[in-house]
Amino acid sequence: MDERTRDLLVFAAIGIVAGFFASFVVGGHGLIRYLVTGIIGAFVGGYLFKALGINLGIGNAFVSQVVTAAIGAIIIVLLARLIA
C-alpha cells in the first residue's frame, strides 16, 4: 500500500470516528452520514481552531484530529438544523 492510499484511509477513519462521536451529541446514524459529517467537520474544526488559535493540548495526533473533526461536525450539524 502506498503512502497516498494510506493517508486517504486514515482520513476516512478519522471522519467516520468523528462523525460517530458527533452523532452521540446531536443525533443521527448511518456510516455514510458519519463519514460525510466527519470529513466536513475536520475541515471546519481545523479551520476554526487555527483561526481562533485554539490548541487542544492532546499529545496523540490521531486523537487530537478526531476531537477537532468531531467538534467541527457538531458545529456543521447544528448550523444545518438552524438553516433547515
From TrEMBL:
Domain of life: Bacteria
Any single Pfam family the record assigns to this protein: Transgly_assoc
Tagged with keyword Mitochondrion: no
Bilayer-spanning residue ranges: 7-25, 31-49, 61-83
Compartment(s): Cell membrane
Protein's UniProt keywords contain Cytoplasm: no
Any one GO cellular component localisation term in the record: plasma membrane
Keywords: Cell membrane, Membrane, Transmembrane, Transmembrane helix
Main location: membrane
Bilayer topology: Multi-pass membrane protein
Similarity field: Belongs to the UPF0410 family.
Entry protein name: Transglycosylase-associated protein
